[in-house]
Write a structure and sequence with these properties.
This protein is mainly alpha-helical and about 325 residues long. It has helices spanning about 25-65, 70-100, 110-145, 145-165, 175-190, 205-235, 250-255, 255-275, 280-295, 300-315; strands spanning about 1-5, 10. The chain is about 70% helix and about 0% strand.
Length: about 325
């Protein structure tokens, strides 16, 4: 014997309908089982939504650790744990709203509309409440965290590291005029061979040498002078007209062929990077930040050559 769940009278164990109140016991048992299955599925979905939010905030924390440092990564981890705890509660709150507002009878214009309404009343309120919580927490984290540094922080760190390491390749670059001048000075400083071991020339050749040597010396001196004047007369060309240089940095770039050539190489590398990047606006922002932070503070050509060579290398790698 068992008790009827409606009138609590004693009935047979195998009874399907109560003989006292007429309640359908089999239908009640099936409804109870369905409610238990729905509650179990609801708890599973709540855990899944909490884990998904935790993973999203965790991914933001990993990115923050790689760019802006462990402090902001720890803050992202705190938000991830908070959503892991509050996300399932928000899902259950949405499920409670669904149970209260779900109509007993769904009126639809066609079969597709009926499916849409059923899907909405099965998952819609839960997704809305949990999604609203996630968006609110994400906005709060974005307000506290430097979002631009998180997005572009890796490239800025690479640029800073590249500018701090001295680039030895710049020191090895010398224009042709400098090399020729060095060669001429080396030739002048090289000791001439002694005449003591030289063979004795005939009197006719010894007499002719004093008349020929001044002419050769004048010819070589005039050649060197013409080359030097040609090098000095050659205009210095940068990525912009040097005649319109207005700032101290622009005048420093146009002060020597080395800096002008480095500026042209930098402009070519920037154009190459702009053609191959997926974020031209971000690249432009990085270029402006580099100019303000590294190029403009330079007061001599050595500093300018170093930072331009490092930034050219970074842009060429994009």
């Amino acid at each position: 014997m068992k008790k009827c769940p409606f009138c609590f009278e004693s009935i047979q164990d195998e009874a399907i309908k109560c003989r006292h109140c007429g309640a359908n016991i089999a239908a009640a048992v099936a409804a109870a089982h369905a409610a238990q299955a729905e509650a179990k599925r609801n708890r599973k979905d709540a855990k899944i939504i909490g884990v998904l939010g935790f993973l999203l905030f965790g991914a933001v924390g990993v990115r923050a650790f790689m760019t802006v440092g462990p402090t902001w990564a720890a803050m992202s981890a705190v938000f991830a744990v908070v959503y892991l705890l509050l996300g399932p509660r928000a899902w259950k709150m949405g499920d409670a709203v669904r149970k209260d507002d779900k109509p007993d009878l769904i009126i639809a214009a066609n079969h597709g509309d009926l499916i849409d309404q059923k899907m909405y009343w099965d998952l819609g309120p839960q997704l809305i409440v949990s999604g609203f919580l996630f968006v609110a927490m994400a906005l709060g984290l974005g307000f506290l965290m430097p979002v631009n540094d998180v997005i572009f922080g890796v490239q800025q760190k690479q640029v800073a590291g590249a500018t701090t390491v001295p680039d030895t390749s710049v020191t090895n670059v010398q224009p042709a005029a400098t090399k020729s001048a060095d060669n001429d000075s080396d030739a002048q400083n090289t000791p001439q061979p002694s005449v003591a071991g030289a063979p004795t020339l005939p009197p006719t050749q010894e007499a002719s040498m004093p008349t020929n040597m001044p002419a050769l010396a004048q010819t070589s001196e005039s050649t060197v002078a013409s080359e030097t004047q040609a090098d000095q007369a050659a205009p210095i060309e940068a990525s912009f007209p040097c005649s319109k240089a207005s700032t101290d940095t622009e005048r420093l770039i146009c002060s020597s062929p080395e800096t002008a050539n480095a500026d042209k190489a930098l402009a070519a590398a920037y154009a190459h990077a702009r053609r191959h990047t997926d974020n031209p606006a971000g690249l432009k922002q990085l270029q402006r930040a580099w100019i303000a932070k590294y190029r403009d503070p330079c007061k001599d050509t050595a500093c300018l050559l170093s930072v331009m060579a490092a930034w050219t290398k970074e842009l060429s790698a994009i």
